[in-house]
Amino acid sequence: MAGVLGISTAILAPRPLSSPTSKFPIHSLSPTPDKRWVLAGFDVVLELYKFLTAAQNYGRKFYGGIGIPVKSGRSQFRVSITNVATEISPAQQQAQKLASKENQRPVYPFSAIVGQDEMKLCLLLNVIDPKIGGVMIMGDRGTGKSTTVRSLVDLLPEIQVVAGDPFNSDPEDPESMGTEVRGRIVKGEELTVAMTKINMVDLPLGATEDRVCGTIDIEKALTEGVKAFEPGLLAKANRGILYVDEVNLLDDHLVDVLLDSAASGWNTVEREGISISHPARFILIGSGNPEEGELRPQLLDRFGMHAQVGTVRDAELRVKIVEERARFDRNPKEFRDSYKAEQDKLQQQIGSARNCLSSVQIDHDLRVKISKVCAELNVDGLRGDIVTNRAAKALAALKGRDKVTAEDIATVIPNCLRHRLRKDPLESIDSGLLVIEKFYEVFS
After folding, report:
1. Which 3 state secondary structure label does DSSP give 282?
2. Where is the secretion signal located (predicted)?
3. Which helix (H) or strand (E) holds 124?
4. Which of 16, 48, 121, 357 stands 20 to 30 A from 286 (CA)?
5. CB 303 within 8 A of CB 136
6. Among 78, 239, 281, 383, which one carries the catalytic annotation?
7. 92-136 pLDDT per residue, tens
8. What are residue 77's DSSP bridge partners?
9. Residues 431, 385: Cα–Cα separation, whole Å
């Protein structure tokens, strides 16, 4: 019985009593000054077993852990089990990892995506420089938006994190550390560093605010005096990617949460006078169909780049897409293996670009022209200027160069500015074309 339950300590904690007796007798109790009784050794298992057996015929209710109310008149007890330890051998851990990997849904290779070069380029540039601020992908249904975003998982590089930290804290960057890790550093404790792939977290449309932000265990805070925080999706996405499919259908209150976290890089949860903050710096990727609804301008401006996706019109390309998809559905493993060389090459290219990004330079004259384009297009704020500079440098790094050219700027500037232009109901020209026209006017 003890081996099954894995019990090291059992604590019988009383609620306020009006009667000294209970319907089910419990023996071998020794009172302590804090009005709690401790059962130890074999008696723990024996008494708990008797208690559970008797309670089955009386009715029970489980609280956190194992909790069993036993009533006699108005008396009530609660039994809780603490220090439940489970040991897993290294071989078992490895087997669990392999089993988990095998059970994962096979992902379509990024290199196998046919066409949609604009969308793929925006995604790659954000992986190279996360400070670009994410990408919004809008287009017709069935054009591979979600498939392309999820295929990015295989190309994500590894990063250093503090082992066991739910916020993926960077051991070398205090700004991206959680409160607990900072406290350990202040105490002089040595941090264990681990390498892990950048996370991609899906935010479902039906998610609750508590699931997104995280929750505070009020009962534990009141009884034990500790801030017990259960991290949410924003904590998991820190230093990673947060993907929202059909972002234009997201509830307004969740949009407000994303806006606040994207702006500050921190998520704050407040419940019943208790406040907890943690870093929440992530690449925000959204996709949607414009026919299903517009996106709030405040949220649209938070996306660094905007990719417009259309249905492939070329018959030969359409046939190729259908054939490739049929191959993947027939044998995903064989299909993925056929693109392994291309995937590895692209992953190495991304890694090299990330490493040399800091050495890429852009001339002052080009910076002035970028800002002139933004000013003449009446772009609100300075995010357009900043993102265009960053995206052009990331593209130069991807191409293996250490200097930005006007061609690099021409490639990225429509994606950086088209969603920041003020909408004119009488204007029929695509905003991306307006940006290109202004670019050639200024740069010529």
Report:
1. strand
2. none
3. helix 117-128
4. 357
5. yes
6. 383
7. 445 444 444 444 678 899 999 988 889 999 999 999 998 998 899
8. 14, 70
9. 17
Q: Concatenated DSSP letters for 8-70?
A: SEEEEEEPP-S-S--SS---S--B-TTS-EEE-THHHHHHHHHHHHHHHTT-----SSS---E
Side-chain half-sphere CA neighbours of 158 within 13 A: 5
Closest CA relative to residue 221, chosen from 169, 270, 280: 270
Nearest to 122 by CA among 360, 289, 307: 307
Asked about 383 being catalytic, the answer comes back as: yes
Average pLDDT score over residue span 354-359: 94
Structural domains of the chain, with CATH: 2-82 (no CATH), 106-318 (3.40.50.300), 360-443 (1.10.8.80)
**Buried/exposed code over 336-369 (b: 16+ C-beta within 10 A; e: otherwise):** bebbeeebeebbebbeebbebbeebebeeebbeb
For the residues 336-356, what does the mean pLDDT come to?
93
Closest alpha carbon to 413 in 389, 429, 443: 389
Considering only the C-alpha atoms of the chain, give the largest distance between any 2 of them, rounded to a whole number of Å: 93
Q: What is the pTM of this model?
A: 0.72
Three-class SS state of 4: helix
Residue whose pair of structure tokens reads 């339950």 in the numeric block: 5
Side-chain-side CA neighbours of 418 within 13 Å: the count stands at: 22
